[in-house]
Write a structure and sequence with these properties.
Number of domains: 4
Helix content: 25-40%
Strand content: 25-35%
CATH superfamily of the largest domain: Threonyl-trna Synthetase, Chain A, domain 2
C-alpha cells in the first residue's frame, strides 16, 4: 500500500477525505505521555514516521472547525494522525500539511540517499550503517573513518549532481522477478510490494520516505565535519535551506567573535591562539598560588587544630582583611587518629604541599591524614601516616578506593574513581549502593536505557542499566524506574537508550533511542557482564 504523500510528495493540501476511525488515547511524544485523539483517514498526505524520516504535522479541517495534527505514526498498514481534537467518524475533512517541515524533511532524506550513494562508490567504498535526521543538522554513520580530502570530493560530486538537475523517481515493485532484479538481499519468501527510490545513474534503494523529484530542489549540500568513533566514520551534513541557515548562523557567530575580540574574521584564529597562550600562563600562576594556599592552610592547622577534641572543625584566626583565605577553608575533621579533608574545587597542586606541611601531626601525634580532591567520580588521594601502617594497608586502601597509584615511605598517593562514595558522603553511598546497577528482563529483545542517578547536593552519581520487554518506548522504561529512584532522594536523568538482545548464553547491546539519543553502549555491556558473568556480552552502534 502506498499513501498519497508517497505518490505525490509535493501535495500540500487534500480535500474530500473521510474519517474512518477516531479514538481517544495516550501517546509518547518527545518522551512525554500526552492525551490525544488517534485518527485514521481514507487517504492522507501526512507521512507517518519511518525510514529515519520524522512524521508530518499540520491541520485537519471540517466546516468551521479544525484539529491540529502534531505528529503522524505508522501502526501496521495504517497512518495514525495524532490530533488535539476529536473528529467524528464519517466526517469529510480537508488536510493541510506543514509544508516547511515536510519539505525540509524530504530534502534531508534525499540528500542522505545521495551522500550515501557517493560514499558507496568504489572510489570511496564506505557503506552507510545508519543515519539520523536531526533538528538542525543530520549525520550518516559510515563503515569506516573518512579523510578531509574524501569528504571534500564527495561534497563536490553531490553538488555536481544537484547542478545537473538529476532526476529522482520512485518505482513500485510487485512481481518476484522485479523484486530480485531491482533489490538486493531480499528473503526468498518476500512477497512485496516495495518502493524503490532511484537517483538517475547514481543510486537505487528501497525506501518508504518522501523525496524530492529533482536533486535541483536541494539547492546545495554541505558536509560539515567528520568524526571517528569506534572504527566507524560519522559525517555531519545539511541540505537545502539548512545550508543557508547554517551559513547565516556561522556568519553571525563570526561577527560576534570579531566584536568581542576587536579583529577581522581572518584574524580570529590568531586571536584565539593568543588567548590560549595567556590562559596557560594564568593557569600556571593559579597553580602556584593554590600550592601556596595549601602550605598556608597547613601552617594554620598546625597552630590552631585542637588535637584533644575529635570531630572538631578548623577555622584559623584570620584577620578581617583576609576573607579570601578564610572562605577557602573547608571542614577538616579528626575522627580518632584519622584527619580527613576533601576539596572538590582544587587539585593535587593543593594537596601535595598541604600534606608535606602536616608531617608534624604524623610524627608527633601519630595521626593518619586522609586527603582528597576532585569532582564527580574522579579525584586524587593522599594518605599519610606511620610508615609501617601505610606499608601494611596501602594496597588494600587503593583497592577499596578503586584507585591506581603507589605506596612509598609512609604515603599512599594516586587517583580514585570513588572518592565521594567511599569516604565523604557515606549516607549517599548507602542510597546508591541500594540501587542495583543492572536490572533487565530475561531472554528476549527489548528496549533499554542508561539512567544517571545523582545527589543534587554533592554531585555523586552512578549510571544504572534498565531494560524491560513490556516497554513500547524508551520513555516507558524511565516511567517505571523514576518514581522509586526519586523516592530515595536521587536526581534522575536518562542519558541514552538502545536495545538488548539476550539469550541463554549471549547478550548484545545495540541501537539508539530517538528521544534520548545513543549512549556509550560499552558502559552497559561492562555492567551487564559483571552482573551476568556466565553470558558472553557484546555491543555495537548498529541498528535502531
Amino acid at each position: 500500500m502506498a499513501w498519497r504523500c508517497q505518490i505525490e510528495p509535493y501535495l500540500k493540501t487534500l480535500q474530500n477525505v473521510n474519517v474512518k476511525h477516531c479514538s481517544a488515547g495516550s501517546y509518547k511524544f518527545k518522551n512525554k505521555k500526552i492525551e490525544c485523539f488517534k485518527i485514521l483517514l481514507t487517504e492522507t498526505i501526512f507521512f507517518p514516521e519511518g525510514g529515519g524520516q520524522p512524521g508530518d504535522n499540520g491541520k485537519i479541517t471540517w466546516g468551521d472547525d479544525s484539529s491540529s495534527v502534531f505528529y503522524t505514526v505508522r501502526e501496521g498498514e495504517n497512518a495514525v494522525h495524532l490530533c488535539d481534537k476529536q473528529v467524528p467518524e464519517g466526517t469529510e475533512v480537508s488536510l493541510e500539511v506543514d509544508w516547511d517541515s515536510r519539505f525540509d524533511n524530504m530534502s534531508q532524506h534525499s540528500g542522505q540517499h545521495l551522500i550515501s550513494a557517493i560514499f558507496e562508490q568504489p572510489e570511496f567504498n564506505a557503506s552507510t550503517i545508519s543515519w539520523n535526521l536531526g533538528d538542525d543538522k543530520s549525520f550518516i554513520e559510515l563503515s569506516r573513518p573518512v579523510t578531509d580530502e574524501e569528504v571534500q570530493r564527495v561534497e563536490n560530486m553531490c553538488n555536481e549532481a544537484i547542478r545537473k538537475r538529476t532526476r529522482v523517481s520512485v518505482e513500485l515493485l510487485t512481481s518476484k522477478e522485479d523484486l530480485r532484479k531491482g533489490c538486493k538481499d531480499l528473503p526468498k519468501d518476500f512477497a512485496g510490494p516495495i518502493r524503490v527510490v532511484n537517483i538517475d545513474g547514481i543510486d537505487q534503494n528501497m525506501c518508504c520516505g518522501t523525496h524530492v523529484e529533482s536533486l535541483s530542489d536541494l539547492q546545495a549540500i554541505k558536509l560539515l565535519h567528520q568524526e571517528k568513533k569506534k572504527g566507524k566514520g560519522i559525517v555531519w551534513f545539511v541540505c537545502g535551506q539548512r545550508v543557508l541557515k547554517t551559513l547565516a548562523d556561522s556568519w553571525n557567530v563570526s561577527r560576534e567573535a570579531c566584536k568581542k575580540m576587536s579583529c577581522k574574521e581572518e584574524e580570529i584564529p590568531e586571536r584565539i591562539e593568543n588567548l590560549q597562550v595567556s590562559n596557560r600562563g594564568a593557569l600556571k600562576a593559579t597553580k602556584n598560588l593554590v600550592s601556596e594556599l595549601g602550605s598556608t592552610l597547613a601552617e594554620a592547622l598546625q597552630t590552631k587544630f585542637k588535637i584533644e577534641k575529635p570531630e572538631s572543625t578548623v577555622l584559623p584566626d584570620c584577620k578581617k582583611d583576609n576573607e579570601q583565605l578564610k572562605n577557602s577553608l573547608r571542614d577538616i575533621t579528626l575522627d580518632g587518629k584519622v584527619l580527613k579533608l576533601h576539596r572538590p574545587d582544587l587539585g593535587p597542586e593543593f594537596l601535595a604541599p598541604f600534606a608535606d606541611n602536616l608531617a608534624q601531626l604524623v610524627e608527633k601525634e601519630g595521626k593518619i591524614i586522609f586527603l582528597s580532591c576532585g569532582r564527580e567520580n574522579v579525584g586524587n588521594i593522599y594518605v599519610i601516616g606511620d610508615e609501617e601502617i601505610i606499608k601494611a594497608s596501602g594496597k588494600q586502601v587503593l583497592e577499596i578506593m578503586d584507585g591506581k597509584g603507589f605506596v612509598k615511605g609512609g604515603r599512599i598517593q594516586g587517583k580514585s574513581s570513588i572518592v565521594f562514595r567511599r569516604f565523604f558522603h557515606t549516607a549517599m553511598s548507602k542510597k546508591l549502593d541500594a540501587v542495583p546497577t543492572v536490572k533487565i528482563d530475561d531472554i528476549g529483545v527489548y528496549k533499554y536505557i542508561q539512567i544517571k542517578c545523582s545527589d543534587p547536593s554533592s554531585n555523586i552519581s552512578k549510571i544504572i542499566i534498565r531494560g524491560c520487554e513490556q516497554a513500547d518506548y524508551h520513555a516507558d522504561v524511565l516511567d517505571i524506574e523514576q518514581p522509586g529512584l526519586e523516592a530515595l532522594g536521587l536526581k534522575v536523568r536518562c542519558i541514552g537508550g538502545g536495545r538488548i538482545r539476550k539469550t541463554a548464553k549471549e547478550c548484545t547491546v545495540y541501537g539508539y533511542s530517538i528521544g534520548f539519543g545513543r549512549p556509550d553502549h560499552s558502559i552497559a555491556a561492562q555492567a551487564i557482564q559483571e552482573a551476568f558473568p556466565e553470558l558472553q556480552v557484546d555491543w555495537n552502534d548498529e541498528g535502531y
